[in-house]
Amino acid sequence: MNVATISADARLKQVLWVLVPAISVVVATEFIVIGLLPLIANDLGISLAEAGRLTGLFALSAAVAGPGLTLLGSRWSPRSVLVFTLLLYSVGNTVMASSSNFSVLLTTRIIQGAMLPAFVSVGAAAVASLAMPDQRGRALANANLGFVIGVLVALPAGAALAKWGNWRLPFVLLSLFSLVAAAVTWGRYPNYRVPEIPSIALPLNLLRNALFLGHLLLSVLLFASMFAAYTFLAAWLDGYLNLSGSQIALTLLLFSAIGLMGNSVAARVADRAPVVATVASAAALVVAVNLAGAFHNVLPVIAVLLVIWSVAHTAGVTLSQVRVTMAGGQAPAFAMTMNLSCANLGIAIGAFCGGWAIDRGGVAAIGWVPAIFGALATILCIVLARAGLVRNHRCIE
């Protein structure tokens, strides 16, 4: 290993040590609401589906505004983008903790959502540029650990903290964590520009590439499938299994801890067959969710199915991030932000459709919406394969 390689490896480790916890804080801000939806709905006197807009509109904002803000942020150093976003999130979480006006809360979530793709994308671009070519998938999966931690820890942490006070306490802590993360990022994150090609030509070429667009559409369908159920997991545990508040918090904590295994599984296959593994994880999740509804009165079976659900969910998130970023080739930041936008579009679609189904069929209807989107994702993968797109692209060989 030469000096340049050692230097790049050391730099990569430094970036990961700073980036993973920072991403965790930002992503937790998006998903903390999921574990608080019943409490927010009750406190503000709104329906569960209406409270779900706090998740859906955050995701929709990320989908619509994310790409443009990422391209705008490419004019700044990555450290500046990261610190600015963390400070913005700190202010936003303070508003969430103090306001009772639902319109103000929605506006705050929309602003925060718009900055999420730019934040995660500049970090992914730094990781992709520092990693060796044959280790890029694993490095991106390691960086995605922050995303996974933020998604999985947000649910139990929000539910547990809310038991000590009310649903606002988690946002107070997230505001403080955002400030700490901003200070650490400013002091420890390397202040340099990622060698991303500045021309707009490359991103535009990607958007004309059928394979890349297929990857993006696949992310929309997969995230819609995953989050149609995951958005209402706390409500499902409450209404379907009749668990107490403390039991729900403990179940969500175990769900999150087990889910970390999914990131490890994804890292092992990220450089070899991410599309096949992604579809497999989506299929496992759909089966687990629907069987959990069928066997809700058999606790040992429910426990096994929740383990499968958790591992499959985490693996699907990680594999989708890696899959599209690698497909982006020399424009990893743009590819990542497009994937995050599409993923958040899928989250918004899943949250709205899941809420619609639950409003009409109760929490027992949590499984059929993920099944529909999962089936569409599988069909899309088959179509791409038959067109020769999957077989001829390195990232999914």
CATH topology: the name is Growth Hormone, Chain: A
Strands, count: 0
User: Helical region count?
Assistant: 17
SS content category: mainly alpha
Show unreliable segments: 1-6, 388-397
Secondary-structure arrangement, i.e. CATH architecture = Up-down Bundle
Gyration radius from CA atoms, angstroms: 20 Å
Question: So what's the overall shape?
Answer: globular
What top-tier CATH class fits best? Mainly Alpha
**How many domains, as an integer?**
1
In whole angstroms, the N-to-C terminal distance is: 28 Å
- The protein's oligomeric status is single chain
Subcellular location: Cell membrane
Pfam families: MFS_1
Membrane topology: Multi-pass membrane protein
Domain Major facilitator superfamily (MFS) profile: 1-389
Description:
The protein is mainly alpha-helical and 397 residues long. It has a single domain (3-396), classed as MFS general substrate transporter like domains (Growth Hormone, Chain: A). It contains 17 helices and no strands. It has helices spanning 3-31, 37-44, 48-51, 53-73, 78-98, 102-130, 136-143, 145-164, 169-188, 201-207, 210-230, 233-239, 245-269, 274-294, 299-327, 332-361, 368-386. The longest helix has 30 residues, at 332-361. The relative contact order is 0.15. Mean pLDDT is 78; it is low at 1-6 and 388-397.
Key terms for this structure?
single chain; 397 residues; mainly alpha; Growth Hormone, Chain: A; 17 helices; globular; disordered N terminus
Kindly summarize this structure in a few lines:
The chain has 17 helices and no strands. By secondary structure, the chain is mainly alpha-helical. It has a single domain (3-396), classed as MFS general substrate transporter like domains (Growth Hormone, Chain: A).
